[in-house]
Amino acid sequence: MPKNSDISRTRSPRLRKPDATDGAAIWELVKSCKPLDENSMYCNLVQADHFRDTCVVAELDGDIVGWISGHMIPDQNAIFVWQVAVSDKARGMGLGKKMLLELIERDACDDATQLKTTITRDNAASWGLFRSFARAIGGDLSDTPHFTRDTHFEGRHDTEHMVSITLPATGDLKRAA
User: Fold this and answer.
1) How many CB atoms are closer than 10 A to CB 45?
2) pTM to 2 decimals?
């Protein structure tokens, strides 16, 4: 557990679906979690409202200390995770992986056979989280360049690799985790 954490080892954040009133707090959390891309507060409000079934907030003492934004990819049996944010106050608790497990157990993800996300090569924390998650559920992880620096970002952003993790059948998940 990080030395600067004020969360005791026995306390654990409550995981839940977000609602529109969480939008501003989610935005503040994402802003504090460099190098995550900051979206507008309105974007986070819409995510919390329209995509609440595929998003997760972690709350402790009324504060949002974790966030996952995601959505089911149209015409695919895949849940796409857009962002994972964990407050400095909650680091070292395995919260990112706990939120991912919470997400894939939701009814809204019943048809998902894969979890997908994009990660730049230099984002060691994200690679570590998703590799750990894949191991925990017994899923295979693969990646391929998806949004490339020159083709999609006009040279202004590193290539985003599409990471795909196979998910266990719904009944197998509880045994895997």
Assistant:
1) 19
2) 0.88
